[in-house]
Amino acid sequence: MSVASDSWDWLTDSANWSGDAGIPHRTLEHLQYTGLTIAIAAVIAIPLGLYIGHTGRFRGLAVASTGALRALPTLGVLTLVSLNTGINLTATLVALVLLAIPPLLAGAYAGLESVDPATVDAARAVGMTHWQVLWRVEVPLAFPLLVGGFRSATLQVIATATIAPQVPGPGGLGVYLLGGLAVGDYPRVVGGAVIVIVLALVVDLLFAVVQRLTTRRRVSTPDRV
Amino acid sequence: MIEYRSVGKTFSGGNAAVADFDLVIPSHTTTVFVGSSGCGKTTLLRMVNRMVEPTSGQVLIDDVDVASRNPVELRRSIGYVMQASGLLPHRSVLDNVGTVLRLQGVSRAETRRRSLELMETVGLDTALADRYPHQLSGGQQQRVGVARALVTDPNILLMDEPFGAVDPIVRDELQAELLRLQRELGKTIVFVTHDIDEAFLLGDQVVILAKGGQRAQVGTPADILAAPANDFVRSFVGLDKGGRELHVEERDGVQVVVDAQGRATGVLKG
Lengths: 225, 270
Ligand SMILES: Nc1ncnc2c1ncn2[C@@H]1O[C@H](COP(=O)(O)OP(=O)(O)OP(=O)(O)O)[C@@H](O)[C@H]1O
Ligand SMILES: [Mg+2]
What we know:
The structure holds two protein chains of two kinds.
Chain A: H1 3-12, H2 23-55, H3 59-71, H4 74-85, H5 89-113, H6 117-125, H7 130-160, H8 174-183, H9 186-217
Helix pairs in contact in A: 1-9, 2-5, 2-7, 3-5, 4-5, 5-7, 6-7, 7-9, 8-9
Chain B: E1 2-10, E2 16-25, E3 30-34, H1 41-48, E4 56-61, E5 64-65, H2 71-76, E6 78-81, H3 93-103, H4 108-121, H5 138-150, E7 156-160, H6 168-185, E8 188-193, H7 196-202, E9 205-210, E10 214-219, H8 221-226, H9 231-236, E11 247-251, E12 254-258, E13 264-267
Parallel strand pairs in B: 3-8, 3-9, 6-7, 7-8
Antiparallel strand pairs in B: 1-2, 1-4, 4-5, 9-10, 11-12, 12-13
């Protein structure tokens, strides 16, 4: 009658693996929120980060504001936004996007900064335009760090998206955690947490593979003579 | 013809790197800027392709001020071999050589063909085509740099200490190679070095620079050796240490050339 064995029973109960409230469907929802969050955050953060990294402008501002953003408590933001927008999915997305922006932004500008200035200078000297320098030299060489930004943003969002059901409507794997907590159903809480952890590990592994592959293919060792 | 007209460059917050510099570089010849580190050689060289903008004066190519030209097109029309090879580390040797052709919209197949041809021209084994720059020796990287600079058949070739970082034997090889290429191609070459022997070997016109891009002397190697303009030049070219002052001694009817220390360096041929 331990929580551990009850959680195991919960996880292996085939009733929990089907239907709209089942684990596969909740996992899919969870991934959808995560994907949507990352997509919105990337649209904001990646162009900004590339601009900052390419031009070196507003770097101090970027460092300070990503620091400030990182310090924001996501649950607080969620509550605050819910007060303004009403209780819906938008509030959750805003809170999660704010969470995902700092690592994406940092990955982009730190990635470009990691490129040897001599290589960028050489690219300009042979007659590349700013766009060509950015897309043909800086982004490919910064790719592993860019992916690194996506990796940590995605992991944070997967973990934090469990707060989504804090406002009614959204589902995802958080339903098990928050719903379970509300009624004191601890096997469900633990079972849900295990699913979130496994999901995070699998996604992290996928990113690690992508990073490994891109690092090996696009050799980034400086070519000093 | 490249012409510097009272060109000056002051970097933000620094003293003048170059001040009031005048020079004419004739077409189809090699002009060498030689001087010690920090005297402004790279600054002067990079003014030709607008990688450095002068703060005063003008640089003209065939009587057209480069400041009036689109910098991207200007750079694509000029070959530039950089101080450290400046190759793109994420591109293969072949792609590095063909960079500018691709930028100009030349087809992939044509780029490949001309890049391989250029690799042969500069004495690179085409088996290296698919390697990445970090998989090459320093000398091979410099050859790739030269091939990249020549692939569009530019009229002007800028070379910034291209052989500065390779060992003396490879350097001799590369110098000989460049002389051969220049005999075939007849480019307008502007070459930067701090090595006076390299300057005299490669230069039709040698520009000896003192601090701040001051022209200490301009002339052919023979002119400079025959009539060094001042003590700075005399010491820079090594006339003060006796290494360049040779005289002839007769041994058994053969005219032996001997330096100031009495070491025999060769024989005089009638
Ligand atoms: N981007 C820059 N910003 C500020 N100062 C610069 C810059 N580039 C060059 N300088 C300064 O201008 C002077 C000339 O530099 P330059 O690079 O032209 O010298 P150089 O003759 O090529 O030296 P080396 O043989 O070491 O390459 C130096 O004092 C250098 O510190
Ligand atoms: Mg230099």
